[in-house]
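INFO  loader      accepted 1 record
INFO  loader      residues=338
INFO  predictor   begin
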Amino acid sequence: EVLEDYQNSNEDHFEIHLTLAYNHVDLGELDLALAEVEKAFYLNPTNYECFMVRGDIYALMGEFGKAGEQYGKLFESREPVSQVMGGRNLTRLYFLQGKLEKADTQRKQGVARIKSYGQTRWESSALLGGARYNLRMGNYAEALKACEESWAAAEQAGYLQNQRQARYVKGLILLAMKSEAEAKQMAAQLKEMLDRGIDNKAIKFYYHLMGEIERAGGNYSAAIEYFEKARALEGYGPLAKRLDFANSLAMAYYESGDLESARDQYEEMTTFTSTRLQYGDIYAESFYMVGKIYEQQGDTAKAIEYYEKFLDLWKNADPGIAEVEDARVKLANLTSNQ
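INFO  predictor   done
INFO  writer      dumping tokens
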């Protein structure tokens, strides 16, 4: 309302149209978002953000080819930030489609590009993305190495946010390696840093890490309590919702046998807007989990619906992904028995 009031009282302004576009994207109002981007583009056709937001809109529409074309245009700009955003957004687009190998290739190219610019803050964030990717793929040694490098780059840049994030991610890696005692030590270090900071809501990362530690130990009620505390600090609005936090809570419910609560969480995840671009693989797999739960609850029609949605999202995914193979088998069995 504030933005539109300004527009009605003043001449057209590029930033106003672009901010309106972002707002519509967050709300899932994609047609309105695209209309605002076109108005912004008319006023400033060389600004890289128009291509970035247009790509995001197409990605959320499921128009992955068009999204890739828009992100590709970001590399045509001489501005380093435009090229960095192009690499980042293409990486995210590949994750959303289950193209994990292409995502990793694009990510590595992005790290090399950023290093050539000498931007240690950007380098720290790119390396942290590499740590998360390798954690997901079970490459723990590489994940730890990337995490340590991110930590060093963040310290060099005086970038406190990523110094904290590196400790948080390292805790998750250590936990995946079954080093629970070391993960707890990392959680304690993280909390000490967060307690010294000015962002009171950043403690959510400590709560999330502690929740994962409790979940790994089978202490589901304690894990759920930590995850709920983390989610309560996410902030207001669609953009603030973190799919990784929601996924942890849903999985804790699922592993504890509370299928109804797990399904509620996963179904909510399928409605996320902007944040699905940051965690595209988690977003896609939420459809698989909803289908799986409906199947366990005996609702064949709903199970088929969500398996089909998942397989449509990942129809071009890398071969051999366990969830894709399982969904295909389950869908075939369910449809043949109808």
